[in-house]
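Question (not urgent): is this output format expected?
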Amino acid sequence: MTDYYGYRKKFAVLVPSTNTAVETEYHKMAPEGVVLATRGCVIPPFSVKTEDDFVNMVKAIGAATEQGLRDALTCQPDHVIFGYSAETFWDGKERSDREFKRYNEIAQEVGNCNITFGAQAILDALACYPWVKRIGVISPYMPVGDNQVVKFLGDIGYEVVRIKGHCSDSPVTIAHEDFSKTRQLVREVDGDDVDLILQAGTNLYFVELAAQLEQELGKPVLAINALTFWHALRNNGIPDRIRGFGSLLAEH
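Got this back:
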């Protein structure tokens, strides 16, 4: 017996409770037979005016993660996708690998399944573009968060040429940023010295814009929600090529 609508796979999606973009974009990308069960790591709708505010928000997500994961496992999913990114690569690859291992062990012990973690999904996705060495990055983060992206990407062998953030004033309002402003950030980080554009920050709507920008810029543009969803699909034996959300899902 399998889930009626999730007869191919059932994914639990773990997100900060303030997040609306992940589940919306995943549902747009989901192939028939894949069901998504969104569960929240409960955090308050922080006011993010300073870098200390941003760090406190990330720490709150980290503190809520284990309980959130255990809650998500109660629906007996085939796989759990961590629908947030900053906490997954905070302090670089060594800590990220350690946290991935800890949470994956919980998922295996309690739920007999594995997880997709943003940082590891980035590593696997970038391997699909072997010529890429230099990256432009956009995010909704404060500079302290952008610095963590630069550190992680450096740890895995990539140079961040330029990075720009929205500096969104709360985890909720990340989802309120409009495409025109996001496009401007992409223009500011792009250039002939950039092989690929990467977007971090899972509550920033970007998957459809990424596909448009790839056509306009003539280079890969990877949205964090597209690459985590791609990682979950491919690691669960689902090879569907899904168009409209960028080259990663359409071609790899």
